[in-house]
Amino acid sequence: MPDRILIIEDERITAADLHDTLRDLGYVVTGVVSTGKEAIAEAERSRPDAALMDIRIQGDMDGTETARILRERFDIPVVYLTAHADRETLDRAKKSRPLGYIVKPFQKSELQANIEIALDAHRRARKSMERFQRLTDVLSAVILGIISVDQIGRASC
Questions:
Q1: pTM of the shown model
Q2: 26: helix, coil or strand?
Q3: How many Å separate Cα 37 from the centre of its chain?
Q4: How far is CA 9 from CA 100, 120, 132, 146, in A?
Q5: DSSP 24
Q6: Angle, CA of 138, 142 and 143, to the nearest 5°
Q7: DSSP alpha helices (H): ranges in 25-107?
Q8: Are the C-beta atoms of residues 75 and 99 closer than 8 Å to each other?
Q9: What CA dihedral angle connects 72, 118, 20 and 105, to 10 degrees?
């Protein structure tokens, strides 16, 4: 099953180009939106595997705030695609913990590499977290299940 990507981009020409490029690369585009509010609604509706997002988008929320919400609420990794690579923008972007950062104009191969690396890293992190949770559950059950008894079967503290 192909990976599903949500595009958050407020420049129509760039959004259309991204849509076509992602489809050519074999991805399913779940939606193309231009605001953080639309991105959150679309993520809730379509549950994409990843989001490709500009940092400066229309609306009250910028891309970094939107990315934080997508990660925290829906566990969706974000790859930024932006024309801005200044120190202030990079520092803001890092706080939202993206799994990729591409500076426009982009190359098709660079886009694909960033998306593939982000998806793989996210899947590995998710599996690791699931293993950690299973281990924690087992250890909790073991701790709760151990009772010390003496030779005649009386519990002792």
A1: 0.78
A2: coil
A3: 17
A4: 16, 23, 36, 56
A5: H
A6: 120
A7: 36-46, 63-74, 87-95
A8: no
A9: 100
- H or E stretch covering 127: helix 108-145
pLDDT in tens, 100-149: 899 998 899 999 999 999 999 988 888 877 776 777 766 676 666 555 55
Cα–Cα distances (Å) from 72 to 21, 25, 75, 77, 138, in that order, read 28, 28, 6, 10, 26
First-to-last alpha carbon distance for the chain, in angstroms, is 55
* Sequence-distant contacts of 41-48: CB under 8 A, at least 24 apart: 42/6, 43/6, 43/70, 43/73, 43/74, 43/76, 44/74, 46/4, 46/6, 47/4, 47/74, 48/4, 48/5, 48/6, 48/76
Contact (Cβ atoms closer than 8 angstroms) between residue 48 and residue 30 = yes
Beta bridge mates, 51: 6, 78
* Per-residue pLDDT tens digits for 93-103: 888 888 889 99
Task: Kindly state the tokens that stand for 80.
Answer: 């930024």
Between CA 40 and CA 67 the distance in angstroms is: 9
